[in-house]
Amino acid sequence: MLKLDEARVAVVGLGYVGLPLAVELARAFPVIGFDVKAARIAELREGRDGTREVSPEELRQAEGLHYTDQPEDLADCNVYIVTVPTPIDRYKQPDLEPLRRASETVGRLLNPGDVVIYESTVYPGATEEVCVPILERESGLRYLKDIHVGYSPERINPGDREHRISTIRKVTSGSSPEAAEFVDAFYSRVIRAGTHLAPSIAVAEAAKVIENTQRDVNIALVNELALLFNRLGIDTQAVLEAAGSKWNFLPFRPGLVGGHCIGVDPYYLTRKAQEIGHHPEMILAGRRINDHMGFYVAAQVARLMTQKRIHVVGSRILVLGLAFKENCPDLRNTRVVDVVREFEAYHAQVDVYDPNVDPDEARAEYDISPVSELCAGKYDAVVIAVAHEQFHAMGAERIRALLKPTGVIYDIKYLLTAEQVDGRL
Fold first, then answer.
1. Which pLDDT tens digit goes with each residue over 18-75?
2. Residue 235 has what pLDDT?
């Protein structure tokens, strides 16, 4: 088995997960960060991180970290960590193509004794069922004898400045007791919060995918309660605050459920469940509720506009926020798009404003061109879709000033009080 002090690390995929990990590992090991996007490598070499997860100062301090978009530059490495995305396709089925391609790249570089660690979220069994055969095919080496595999799921929370890689406990696992011991010791070098060694790769995979499935189901429950309370004419936030006075009430809030984890991971688990003949009723019910919320929001705004005798067709609507969560530029699987598309189906003219996102990425990913500035007195409705700090700073008066003399403010994120808006979840 490889000795820890001999580790030369390659991190494959330098997105929201891979770059912070590479920077942290560079404190203890020589690290090469690899990404297929030449533009990404160029910006990192210039000391810039477009995801804003790593500061310019942190990049400068990572002296043991080098970047490349050429796979052959990884040939001298002996620990390969795969941190590529695992999205879903348009049919909400797991898309493992990035993981397969990364496994092919790594497989061609492997030598006997090398270790491959996967961090990408997958369903239980995927690492050994999907990735390992690719590694064997591309390398000509044998699993468990020549090459060793580990799984240590990422726990990155984009935009979170408090919970960072080194302060979040890390789940580890390996393909054999020796591999598991190596993987656990490897991460222990940089994870100050400590590690949890799972008994198998499948257990570690399952642990990761249920972390976000649990949150998804809980948010779905609160979303359904919001739908109910809206019909009853009861303020959902007031109900949750009252219930939250009990010590063990969980503080979930209603809203749009997108992003690279909570809105995606449950589909990985349900895919595996259905493959073995189990129908996961609660998980899928939660997904249906959460996937519907964008359309519900648009319908509620249209109803409020109609009550004020504002014609929805041809109206001007402003959506504040496009990222999937507050204070970050991450557009992956943002469900704000559902709100925008539904307004467009009403034949409304929709502007989207988000000072945190890359306009070029928004156009490429969703064919949405965010406006660069806000105009007072222009809109029939304003929807607060993301609780960016910039929108907090605006306050109710400045947001209300964006409306025509009669208009509607709808607050998805409880950024304003009930008295300051016309409607909210």
1. 999 999 999 999 999 999 999 999 999 999 999 999 999 999 999 889 999 999 999 9
2. 94
In the predicted model, what is the mean pLDDT of the chain? 95
Q: What is the DSSP letter of 317?
A: E
Count CB atoms within 10 A of the CB of residue 38: 11
Alpha-carbon span 140 to 143, nearest angstrom:
10
- Which one of the listed residues 131, 261, 328, 375 is annotated catalytic? 261
Note the maximum CA span of the chain. Answer: 74
d(CA 237, CA 234): 9
386: amino acid identity, one letter:
V
Residue 163's pLDDT band (cuts 50, 70, 90): confident
Q: How many other C-beta atoms lie within 10 A of the C-beta of residue 359?
A: 15
131 catalytic per annotation: no
Kindly report the backbone phi and psi dihedral angles of residue 291, in degrees, each rounded to the nearest multiple of 5, phi listed first: -70, -20
255 closest CA partner among 383, 422, 86, 421: 383
What's the pTM value of the predicted model, to 2 decimals?
Answer: 0.93
For residue 151, the surrounding DSSP H or E stretch is strand 148-151
Helix, strand, coil share (%) of the chain residues, nearest 5 = 40, 15, 45
Residue corresponding to tokens 């909570």:
262
